Amino acid sequence: MTGLLDLPDEILVHILLYVSHCKILQLGDVHNRLQNLLNNTAVWTHVSFSRPVPASVLRKCVKYLGRHTKSLRITGYSGGKRPKPESNITDSFFSTLKQKCVGLSSLSFHDVWFNQPVRVDSFLRLIPDSVTSLELKNCHLPHTPTREKNFLHLLNRTNIQKLALIKCKWLVCKDMIEAISNPKMQTVRFEECRSFSNISHSVVIKTPRQMSAQKRDNQEPLDLTICGCELKQELMKCLFTLNGARIHKLTLNSNKNIKIKQLMTPYSNFKKLEYLDVRKSDVENDVNFMQEVRSNIPRCEINT
Question: What is the pLDDT, as a whole number, of residue 212?
């Protein structure tokens, strides 16, 4: 009978790809051959700690990460029925990550409680320069952002093109302005960020020159999702006036105090719109609105 260790290395490595990274280090204790196979870069190309992972495990795993690592997801302890204000990420981990993972393109943190010196205004400075996709879900970051130094104040210095911020209570309106107005952004998601602070929402400038610059053809098409957020109608109207021409997919669900029909008129601002999702909104059952959209933006698919 052929045992597991009788299989060739390439088969064993393929098997390791289906083992959770939360437990993969334990295989090294089973046999020296499995320990050696952990050094195979294929095992650490797409790394996902889908369950809360202790800092001690992360410290052991970091030696296997490198320029071959393309995506990384880390889950902390601030989620679930019994959340803990316990951090498993340190500034030294960020320093090592930035130094070693020069090819990392996707970075995701779920339920992570960050402690000092990792702060709202310094977070983007800590991640690898190669990251093009960033997701934070239900994460805690210390320090209330100021007008000059909100979370995304350094966004234009990064290579991020896809951004998802979910259940993040420390965002301010300026963060939404920075994300939607950045010309290289391709995907922006704000979900269940209910308590947006109104700090510096007045920084949206509406001069004719800036409106013309915002509508340049060299901007990336934008897939925009805003769900379960509490925002100012005036702020959203201004942002849509400046950036509507580049939005090709738009999802607006369960947003408090937002009147979608007013946001979208004139419809000529959304000439590139191909998909519109307005479920659980004030126009969900508005037949006249649907007809107006189909009449003014014929190629737009509407999901209600």
Answer: 55
